[in-house]
Amino acid sequence: MTELEARKFADLEAIRAPTLGGRLARWRTALGNAWHELRKSRTASIGAVMLVLLFGACIATPWITTYDPIKQNFRERLQPPSEKHLLGTDRMGRDIYSRLLWGGRRLVTIALLAVTFGLSIGIPYGVLSGYFGGKVDTVAMRFVDGLLAFPGLLLYLLIVTLAREWKMEGIYNDMVLIFALGFAFTPEVARLSRSSVLVEKQKEYVEASRAIGEGSFAIALRQILPNIVSPLIVNATVRLGYVILIVAALSFLGLGTPPPTPDWGSDLAAARDYMETAPLIAAFPGLAICYTVLAFNLFGDGLRDILDPRLAER
Amino acid sequence: MAETVPRPVLELDGLTVRFRLRRGDLTAVDGVSFAIERGQTFGLVGESGSGKSVTAKAIMRLIPDPPGEIPSGRVLFEGSNILDKSDAEMRALRGRRIAMVFQEPMSALNPVFTVCDQISDALRTNLGLSKAEARERVVELLSLVGIPSPQKRLDSYVHEFSGGMRQRVMLAMALSCNPGFLIADEPTTALDVTIQATILELITSMIERLGMSLLFITHNLGVVAHACDRVGVMYASHIVELGDKREIFANPQHPYTVGLLNSIPRLDGHAKYLTPIAGSVCNMMEPPSGCKFHPRCAHAMEVCRREIPRLKEIAPGHLAACHLHDRGTA
Description:
The complex is a heterodimer of chains A (314) and B (330). By secondary structure, chain A is an all-alpha fold. Chain A is built from 12 helices and no strands. Chain A has one domain (43-59, 83-307): MetI-like fold (Orthogonal Bundle). The longest helix of chain A has 37 residues, at 96-132. Chain B has 12 helices and 12 strands. Helices cover 32% and strands 23% of the residues of chain B. The two termini of chain B are 33 Å apart. In chain B, the strands form 2 sheets. Chain B has an 8-stranded mixed sheet, sandwiched between helices. Chain B is α/β, with parallel strands linked by helices and 330 residues long.
């Protein structure tokens, strides 16, 4: 390759791979650009702020809570909000503020893992199916159609009941939940990525990559995939809110997390008995669920407006 | 000239490409044969839809199958038939031995990658270079194709370049793995007229400098006059005339070539008006019988309706497919 005598032009110092400082600077510009884009949509900015608060609280939980969320204290049952207990206590005298934060931390983690699991299976499945097309695609998509025909809630109930039958507890129970929620998300992701690939693979750069000697897998996953992430990001964000709602609903029905683990759904269910005497106990987990789902939905909707200007209503 | 005839880099022998569409079969390339010698620039000229690009894609084996198929013909690249190669052999050939420059530099470059990432991707898959080596090589390539201060443009995205600069990037990418043979599919068509000449100049100088052979596809005879050694004129899936550039321009033998040359404005002021070719390109789903050009041809005879004319040598190295030339031999 030295027969190209262009080396004299090359300033070798300047072309070294970027240093750590350079990389940090690039990240900072990228973040700055992202924030600039985000501000185009008020919905997205509100959602983003709400999400930053939510994630901040989840991360900081061990430091900003003062009580053990499962420690019972019968001398301080059903107390209204006070300086000692910011949001009061429940029927077992547990600090609601602490339970809310610990429960949220767990809930958000489960939702993130479940959605990541769904994406990591659904994306390669859909992308490869769409890229290779033909018979592979037909068979793969009929299978997805079959999965989509199966009602999600029924699937969760089935899997959760099985887990209970098999005496799975603690972390195993959570893993089963994550698996069920992620699995139910897979067909949707597969379809969405496939349809985006069908559009994208017609573009000339795909042919150009083939002409320069790249293989099919490299083209599908390295060249096409980065071009179709925006609808997937939007979908995953909205899905996060939905997953949180489902987990809360399952716990509310007594199928999710067994007590005494802090959980918004089961706390809400337990608070029903005190609706008349101490309605605030039910209000807090309810509001928490509301806030979280709203945050994800606002952010997701706003993102869609930013990423796909054709859909935005102005 | 040496006594031993050097083997051509690329030789097409009766290449036929057909698309099976729902409405019926469409033959986009029909029995096309030509050869490109080492170091030569071959221009393939024709109207839109004449089968030029399909020919190029068939050489690269980029015809999607289905619906496309190649029922007959051979494409000999350096002596071996490309159509017999496995997909893996083909991948090894693409980029490293044959490369291609596309018409639309905007859509032929991936919008989500920087120029450096894009070109070094090719270098790393084909030549196994490390990230740093690839980066250095990209700078060399970019300065080779005349992009000013390449080290500053390395991490720019495609949309940050102008049309002409994009085409330079495209060319740098095609040249990245030192291919011996380049296919340029209308590389100047999407560009500003002022940029066209620059890019054309760049491509021809690269070819000369790196000792490559070039298949140049265009509908612009001016470009052919400037860049090519030998010319093939295509009309409705057939090659109708084939010869050295000088021969074709000075002594065109096929009525279609004559028509094409007459539709170019001239500066020496012989003709007051341009003479366009009457009618338009035939519908390739239902091509006319016999010579595909006969409905538009001023010299059409009875035989043109019945028989497809064969390419015949009229002068040494100059071939035309027209019944007008039968009379002398018959």
